[in-house]
Amino acid sequence: MSTEIEQYAAQLVTSMALREAALGDAVRALAPAAGSRGLDVGCGAGLQCIMLAEAAGPDGHVTGADVVPEFLELGRGLVEEAGLAGRVTLQEGDANQLPFADDAFDWAWSVDCVGYGPWDPMPPLHEMSRVVRPGGQVAILAWSSETLLPGHPVLEARLQATAAGLSPFTRDMPPERHFPRALGILRSAGLTDLRAHTLAGAAHAPLAADVRAGLASLFEMRWPGVEAELEPAHLAEFARLCRPESPAFILDHEDYYALFTYSMFVGRVS
């Protein structure tokens, strides 16, 4: 496993403690039926596959597909540790050309992948719809907002306006391509019975060790390489508040509070 992939995989696993409650709410909103068969597109290390398999029950089955073999290798170990090896299968698969038969699943979902980036969402959505039986659900979810630096709104707004802060979007992306407009994207893909859910997550001091580690990991994933885009005053404040080695690291504040949201858009295959 390359150092870059290994580091990103570790960040995904570490940040799961922070995101688990919101994603658990998303699983409950999807409400996979007991005994159902589902697909997680862009499953990464399979962390959501584990949650989905638990929701689908002992007679259900979840397949995770991803294009990064190293993620899948890590995920198989996590699935084994969770005691779900017989209920979760992880395999290589491109979202634009899924290696599954028509109507193979009762539902499909994708987190921070399909519809969440500068690439065309329609091919993977058509593929997800193809492999889900008529009447089944297709859901796409993504991180949609955050307040991670309480009391410092100007710095946080400046960070959000950087290239990393805007990622995976770009400054010239058409409005209808942004993830909060995903109801229109699902409609264009031919899905019906559309609905949207907002799932909130929060953390506050005193922070449990795993949540603190998740937040620190999130800072690294959310704002990599922003230093070149910050003015000197903002750069100094960023280093003071967002670097673990700083004596003023914001996660050490006794009144720290963070809030973030995931948005989930769901439609049915007609």
Task: Supply database-style keywords.
270 residues, alpha/beta, Rossmann fold, seven-stranded mixed beta sheet, 9 helices, 7 strands, 39% helix
CATH class: Alpha Beta
- Backbone shape: globular
Task: Detail the poorly predicted runs.
Answer: none
CATH architecture: 3-Layer(aba) Sandwich
Descriptive account of the structure:
The protein is α/β, with parallel strands linked by helices and 270 residues long. It has a single domain (3-268), classed as Rossmann fold (3-Layer(aba) Sandwich), CATH 3.40.50. Helix content is 39%, strand content 24%. It is built from nine helices and seven strands. It has helices at residues 3-30, 47-56, 69-81, 122-131, 153-160, 163-166, 182-188, 209-222, 232-242; strands at residues 37-41, 61-66, 88-92, 105-111, 132-147, 192-204, 257-268. Strands 3-2-1-4-5-7-6 form a seven-stranded mixed β-sheet, with helices on both faces. α1 packs parallel to α2 and α1 packs across α8. The protein is globular and about 55 Å long. It starts with a helix and ends with a strand.
